[in-house]
ADP-dependent (S)-NAD(P)H-hydrate dehydratase (Tessaracoccus flavescens), 462 residues
Amino acid sequence: MRQILSAKQIRDAEQHVFDTQPDVDLMGRAAAAVARIADAVTPEGTVLVAVGPGYNGGDGLFAAARLAPHRPVLLWLAMGKAHEAGLEAAVRAGAQEVDAVGAIGSLVDCSLVIDAVTGLGSRPGLPAQVATFAAACEDEHVTVLSVDLPSGLDADAAEPHESFRAAHTVTFAAPKPCHVLQPAASRCGRLHVVDIGLDVEAGNLRQAEESDVARWWPVPHEGSDKYSRGVVTVDTGSETYPGAALLSCAGALHAGAGMVRYTGRAPSGLIMSRFPSVVIGDGRSEATVLGSGWGDTDNAASRVEWAKLHRLPAVVDADALYSLPNGRLEGWLLTPHAGELGRILGCTRAHVEAQPLECAREAARHTGASVLLKGATQYIAEPSGRVTIAVAGPAWTARAGSGDVLAGICGALLASGLPAWKAGVVGASIQAITATRHPGPYTPDDLSARMPQVIAELTSEL
Ligand SMILES: NC(=O)C1=CN([C@@H]2O[C@H](COP(=O)(O)OP(=O)(O)OC[C@H]3O[C@@H](n4cnc5c(N)ncnc54)[C@H](OP(=O)(O)O)[C@@H]3O)[C@@H](O)[C@H]2O)[C@@H](O)CC1
Ligand SMILES: [K+]
């Protein structure tokens, strides 16, 4: 599990080092890492360092000082001012200063641009001259290595703003929200997280890794039977949308449910012809999946209430999200996309997309359920306010039916005994990992059929 830290948390940790170990040279360590990665990314050719007025620029200048003895280095002081000691060191080492026109003109001969304009102190957006330079880097297809974050981004936010588009970003101590939240994360390229000796504490935002999914996967043991592995009752689909029923059953079966019962309104013959192991009708179960493909069914509220009355942990998807019963929904997992979450909270889809963490947290706090907010980045918020980001996957999974499969996967995991937040994290992550290992335009059901092999590989890698 990777901790994701805010700019304030990093600054506090930095201050702690300054207060307790004044001799430690954090900027020197940061600069050494930048120079090392610059050489690894492009071992030869001219490096142009775009330098801002603060300590981010200082990192760039001390990196320039390390690079200049063995390769040509140009400096552009993008806002006129620069860290004095850093500038002196870079110039002493042989780096050459250029002006704005010279910087853009030299791009054609550069193998690497180091973007050290702004970092944690970045106000969103770029001054016009820097924006022109960042656009020129893209036009010339020059590799950009950003220091800490692509200048122009807000370290704590998902918005892309006007910013550099980096091929590589070197950050310190831990990723910040902008490195993992889309669309900002797409500006960062490959992320290199470097330990510079900051002691950082766990916060309430983190990102799951493949190893977590492997560790948490409910692998059956010698004593397991279909009941102990978990029976999931799937009430999804309708006469209008029978496909949703097949997709959520596919998700639950391929995630390893001990048994799947189907109680929805899609024709049972259709379910049986595709999945003969599914049992039609009600019975003992450990969890239920509700809502995918219901459409505007007339008795949604009573079908959701049924799960509450039976104290059955539920995955609540799609249309069922608008019929949540009163009271705390402890142990439940809600799986809205941004539009659905907006409707639940009484705000717009655009607001949820701009403030995904806050919105997911608010819904979890308000309902008592865990909330899996689906999208390019998938967030699982708990009523406590803690948010875990699922393992990221390729954009191939962004298509109709993926959410129905995911609801079924999460239902199987909930039935196996995982707490709701973990079922959401593991479910969303396994779908992403499967898509990463099988890139291409596979349909959601095709992809779910490849999941068992990926689960077997993952859990045998332990
Ligand atoms: N914390 C750590 O552990 C370590 C931190 N280190 C490094 O320090 C970096 C943080 O340094 P920092 O605090 O000096 O802020 P930084 O990002 O350089 O920018 C501030 C300057 O930029 C200006 N400015 C900002 N946005 C602007 C805009 N849109 N348009 C125009 N101007 C804008 C801003 O102007 P102002 O807002 O004051 O008007 C101010 O002058 C951090 O990212 C990391 O690289 C490492 O060395 C070691 C360990
Ligand atoms: K930067």
